[in-house]
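Same chain as my last thread, 714 residues:
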Amino acid sequence: MIASSGLCVTIVSYPLKPRSSEMFSAVKRSSSTTSIRLIPFNVYPSKDSLNEVYILYLGPSILSHFVLSSSFKTLLFFWVLMSLPGVSGATSYPLSGNLSALGDSLLTERDYVDALMVYRLELGNDDVPKASVYINMGKAFFYLQEQDSALFYYKQAAEWALSNNKDELLGMAYFNQGSVYTTQGDYAEGIAYTRKALQTFKQIGKEYVVAQAFFNLALLYKKNALFDEAIINLDSALQRFEKNDKDKIGLAKIFQLLGNIYREQDEDSLSLEYHQRALQLKEEIGDQRGLFASYNDIGNTYLKLYDYQQALNYYQRALQAEDTFFVSTTLDNIGETYFRIKDYSQAEQYWQQSLSLRERIGDKHGVAATLTELGELYVETENWQRAEEFLKQGGDLARQNDYKEIWLSNYQSLSKLYERTGRFREALNHSRMASELREEIYNQTREKILQRMKISLRLRDFENQNQVLMEEAQLNRLQVEQERSEKRWIWTTLAIIVIGALWIILLSLRNARWQKARSREIQHRTKNFLQTLANLYDFQSRGLNDPEAKALVMESEGRVNAMLLIHNSLSGLSNRVEMSAYLQRLVKAIKDSFAPALQHTDLQFSIEELYMDADQATPLALIVNELVTNSFKYGLPGLELPALKVALTTQGKKELLLEITDNGGEGKRKAFRQDSYGLRMVHVFARQLGGNFKLHFNAGETRAEVRLKIGTAP
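reply #2:
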């Protein structure tokens, strides 16, 4: 018999259809009673969870009704009972902290439904940050594979954290939203929200979480075959993990992922190097599970290198793992290795072991793959009956579950089987079906390419938004007089640097006629000077706060880089520049300096094979640099299929025609201001080369025409 002073606790749990209005009603208190009503919806995985529980206390009376359907309900009841005030014998400690601990424990034990009940109860306490509870509820739904519900609670957490200035909780909410979008196959949104989380954690100095965010971004980029982006993000994660010498687990994960990326890029020596570094770290920290994964990855790399004995050595080490799924995959890899060296008896033995394990754990994809592999083996050993039996079983399973790659391999093996056994009609039929399926897979590949383009566009939008926010923050922090002083200093510095650069270039070109040893020395020094200038511009642009000044510095950096390319194109004592190769490198370098959204620009070149002296090629290069930069800056952004054509042709013996055309159309008329600094430079350099410069605006394109009266080098 338990006494109470005016306590009423009601717990009702049953599945409901999720609606926006069906929210958990928090703890309600009055002067006489305390009432708790708990209603989880759409979370139970089976009918066995259907239940109703009522726990009633009326005044000082005894327990009058007590029906429980699980030990968890008993635990929850006494937890709540002993945590509320006014209960005889209750311990005096806050309800919220104990519920958090209970919910986290249940989440760890994978009791997701029960954890949800506790977290919903915890929402009734105003002392608990709501975002933290919402995040935990989102995790429970995520593990229950209720992704829409998980996303709903993560968004609730983000809204609460944003309105209450809880940056760490906001970053966690963004991070988890990215995980949900990734699970749903929306990689563009997954990457965008992970980047938002990364920026949030950067602002509050959570370097370890920032490193984890960079690693997750690398995983997403790798999954979408954006390997360069993946490597860049892994490098950022590596720099942060290396600051903490004890974090060898994070370093090992990075090295292992780098090894897998380089293997997919056919850089197998680098792949082995990084896998060995990961293996060494895992051995130092005693990460047994990680060691087995590294053994398998190294085996895969040796298999790709046709070093079958080394592959088998590492696969055999990986077989010591305790994870059944992992072991079944390793057995399959060993079977594949023996099949390649035509040891069909061993291949059959290992594939049969893999098949047995995969059937036991319900791995349908693995079962379909192994059945097809065994069928192909029996075709090679001319065991026609077993070959057809296994291939048909594997094909049926692949079709039922839409495993198209396995399905295609199955059709091809059946076609080979029927051809070798003289059943040519069936062979032709399966060959036709394989062709149709191959076309379907090709269409899916195109969809993946579109997904990558969507990711690039989404990232551009995110970067633009982030840039706007950064500029607004800078404007709020800076004073007007500081900006004016900074601009004056920048203009003076730029003028000195540009004049100095031009003077050094002219001096180096004149001195090129001197003796051979002196010529080599001047070329070497000029290159170093221009590289220093480019580095100085780059360093200075990073420290600038004013957007206009920063843009000017970056434009000047582009001009210096154009001149630097000229000197990099000179070989030995030659003062000649091969213009076709040089201009193509210059235009591609300019394209690479712009945002990902313009990286798919269609570049076309129609440049005659001709040589020019360096003192004539330099102003021509600056003209091309200005016009191409203007196209990428004003004409091409926003186009679905941006295109740029660069043409350089001879007109008679001493005249060249340079044409730069983009499909920006009439919209560029405003962008190409005739009085802009860049276009004035084009006019000046054109006159210097004895020519003229004109712009032509037509429907759907803009063409810049420069006629130059100069000769070519012999």
